[in-house]
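Protein entry
_____________
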Amino acid sequence: MSKQSSAFIFTLVLCAALIGAGPVLAQAPAAAPAAPASTAVALPAPALVPVLSKFSLTIYGYVKLDASYDTSRASGGDLAFYVMPREAGEKDDEFNFTARETRLGLELKCPEYGDTRVSGKIEADFYGKGGDANTPVPRLRLGFVDIANNGWLVRAGQDWETFITAIPKIDNFAYLADAGALGLRRPQLRVQKEFNISDDSKVVAKVAAARTIGQDLDGGGQDDGADASFPTAQYNLTYESKLFAAKTAKIGVSGHFGRETMDTVVDNQVVGSDDKDYDTWSVIGSVVLPVTEWAAVQGSIWKGENLDTYYGGIGQGVNTKLDTSIGAIGGWGQLVFDVTKDLNWNIGYGIDDPEDEDLNDKDRSKNQILFSSVYYKLLPPVTLIFEYSYMKTDYKASDDEADNRFQGSVMYTF
């Protein structure tokens, strides 16, 4: 394990120890095996030792093992974004085992200050860049502080995109990225306000300034998003109400606007600064609709340009050969059935469809996925998951590719 990985894990554990829980209970080590009957010594039961602090701390997360088989090579391997082109004209199947999705999180709360509440969250998994199959690298997922007062909320840190309203329930950890679902997580400063309409209905308005994460397409050694010199604006306006069931329904309109700026580079030298701008934007409509206590419909549709770092356009944002942003439309939909309190079944579809005129030959021109998953709670903390998906990726002026993916998982939640 690298020094950076060791430091990250040590810091996370140290936070838990120092900030403490109010109370967090830690169990003492298990007793050693009993001695033979003739010399047995009665040992006291393991004690629960409280760790106290002025703040409240909740530790949460899960341990997860994923096993997957793909009939054709998919981008990502442990997770599938799209189907790769054939090598030497032949499909290349593969099998993967990983525990990288294992997650650890801390929820922090401090005493209220009048009507003001302050809380925070830190969450990490092991999908960081680098590392090996059995020595993965930790990665920050979430890290933010909330300040809430009388319907207002300010969130500062790294969180899910402000424009996300619905998240698919799927075992493939790609979450339909590059296959119909926009967005991930990024640093941002968000302001949120709730407007109550009735006891069961409200409108939630959110706006945020978020980091524009781009690439270095011009080769000038600078992130093209940072080179734009201003953050991306994100927004989300959602109506929430109990329409058909006790669970809350959501209907939202959201999106973003930002820019990437490129320099002119010749022989690895910048000869012109901030010469070209490429806007990135999206408009999204989303719904989460519980129809009964055990069945729901959810999904999103969207349109936009230069969406590669938002996992749209099948990972393609700017075509430097044609000197244009790549436009795309897409979306996803899913039926969710809680058959019993221990059994959940889902079926869904996603599509990401870039504009063909913005692409070069052999670029990815359409990506579709049809998937179904079953979650079974074997024990209160242990869930078994099985998922089948069929993914088809089209390539402009080239052969289409298809993959049948079979994935099974064991998840222990704490």
